[in-house]
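hi!! sorry for the late reply, been swamped w classes. u asked for the two structures so here they r. pasted raw, havent cleaned anything up. first the sequence of the first protein and right below it the C-alpha cells
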Amino acid sequence: MTPELTVLALAALLQILQIALYSVAGQAQAGTRAALKPRDKKIELSGRPGRIHRAMNNHFEGLILFTIAALLAAHAGSTGLTAACAWIYLAARILYVPAYVLGWVPWRSLIWLAGLLATTLMILASLL
C-alpha cells in the first residue's frame, strides 16, 4: 500500500474517533433520551460538544478532497512529496481537533490551512 493510502486509512480511523467523541459529548449535553429519538427536530449543541460536532463535520469535508488526492497520488505514482504531504495532512487533522475544540486562535485556522495546502500539493503533483 502506498503511504498516501495508508494515511487515508488512518484519516478514516480519525473520523471514526471523532464520531465517537461527538456521540459521547452530545449525549452528555443533550441526554441519551434525545440521542435515541428520531431527528425530526435538530438538536443544537453548544460549547465544547458543539465545537466537537463542527470539527467532525469539517473533517468530513476535508476528507473528501484528501481521498481524491490520495487516490490520484496512488494511481499516478507515489513520490516523496506526495507521501510527505499526506503525513502533513494527517498531522494537521489530528491537531485540528483540539485546536477547534479548545479555541486555539489563530492556530486553528493555520492548522486547517496546512492540511488544505498539503492536499492541494498532492493533487497538483499528481497532475505533473
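now the second protein. again sequence first, C-alpha cells right under
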Amino acid sequence: MMRRLKPLNDFVFKKLFGENKDKDILIGFLNAIIQTDVEDLYIVEETLVKTK
C-alpha cells in the first residue's frame, strides 16, 4: 500500500513550493488561491532541520 504525503505538512509544502527554481509552480498556486495576478516573487531559501 502506498502512503501519500500530505501537502499541509511543512516539509512537503517546502519541497513543492520552496525553491526559486520552482517559483512558477508557487505563482500559479497563489494566483489560483487568492485570485490575483502575481507576476514574480523571490523565495528566501532556508534549510529545514528535522527534530525528534
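hope this helps!! also noticed smth abt the second:
The chain has one domain: 1-47.
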